[in-house]
Specification:
Layout: H1 7-18, H2 23-30, H3 34-42, H4 49-53
């Protein structure tokens, strides 16, 4: 999927939302629609997170 955000940025968006921030606020900050956010979230990039940490 072509995106203007890196995997790291998408992971950060998802983490912010899962930490309790409203989805609308996260989307507004990054300039994306809620549909786009949930599309990113459905791609389930979080397993890739361990590759960036370790």
């Amino acid at each position: 999927m072509k995106t203007r955000f890196t995997d790291e940025q998408i992971i950060q968006m998802i983490k912010e939302q899962e930490a309790g921030e409203k989805t609308a606020d996260v989307c507004r900050r990054y300039g994306i629609s809620q549909g786009t956010f949930y599309k990113y979230k459905s791609n389930d990039l979080l397993p890739l997170e361990s590759a960036f940490i370790g």
